Amino acid sequence: MPPAIISPSVLASDFGQLTAECKRMMAGGATYLHMDVMDGHFVDNITMGPPVLASVHKAIPNIFMDCHMMVAKPEKWVDAVADAGGSLYCFHIEATSEPLPLINSIRARNMKVGVAISPDTPSTAITDEIGNAADMLLVMTVYPGRGGQKFLERCVPKVAELRARFPDKDIEVDGGVGPSTVHACAHAGSNVIVAGTAIFNAASPEEVISGLTAAVNE
Ligand code: DX5
Ligand code: ZN
């Protein structure tokens, strides 16, 4: 399994202090920063878009922005996110009928490619061709749309199914993941751990990040 990558979800941060919060997480050992982009169409919530990503990138040029695109038209935002400094562009398979051309367009802009599945989407929605063309596969463990929800255990078998088919890919879990739920995810084969409230609400984010890392690498 590829090594552990911890990606704190800034959705749980104080947006008024966004760049400081990102720096705090990087100082605490975060490898990626998980940027939840919601458009009010694919999900019933609006968060941030390319201008905010650009401001964060301007303040922290060496940041790795893991952009989770909860948007209805993922084709539409590739250039804007690339221009804003996005490092990884993760789209939902439910939101496109043309995943392979979309993957090619993300690569053409020198971003890594992620493909996400929501709780009701089977792992088989990620075909061999799509999975092999991606860098990272994201198994949502809550319904996308907001932070602080309860972890859906029933999504974990999909991680194991994808790990069996794609032994070398990064497999990310997102939603309700923290010290008490990470072991199930890691055991099933996830190596990229998103955690929002579990990290940002902790007295010591650094301790939570090192605990999550240890759970994956053990
Ligand atoms: C949910 C987002 C998640 C969320 C995770 O739609 O994609 O990234 O912020 O937050 P927690 O870890 O609090 O469930
Ligand atoms: Zn997310």
Features:
8 strands, isomerase, globular, binds D-xylitol-5-phosphate, Ribul_P_3_epim-like, 9 helices, metal-binding, binds zinc ion, RibuloseP-bd_barrel, zinc
SSE arrangement, N to C: EHEHEHEHEHEHEHEHH
Percentage of helical residues?
25-40%
- At the fourth level of CATH, the homologous superfamily is Aldolase class I
Question: In what range is the share of β-strand residues?
Answer: 15-25%
How many strand units? Answer: 8
Give me the CATH architecture, please: Alpha-Beta Barrel
Low-confidence stretches: none
**CATH fold category name:** TIM Barrel
Radius of gyration: 16 Å
Overall pLDDT confidence: 98
How many strands, what sense, and barrel or not for the largest sheet? Answer: 8 strands, parallel
Bound molecule types: D-xylitol-5-phosphate, zinc ion
Q: Tell me the number of helical segments per DSSP (H or I, 4 or more residues long).
A: 9
Number of domains: 1
State the strand order across the main sheet. 1-8-7-6-5-4-3-2
SSE-based structural type: alpha/beta
Keywords: Carbohydrate metabolism, Cobalt, Iron, Isomerase, Manganese, Metal-binding, Zinc
Organism: Mycena chlorophos
Active site: 36 (proton acceptor), 174 (proton donor)
Binding site for substrate: 9, 68, 145-148, 176, 196-197
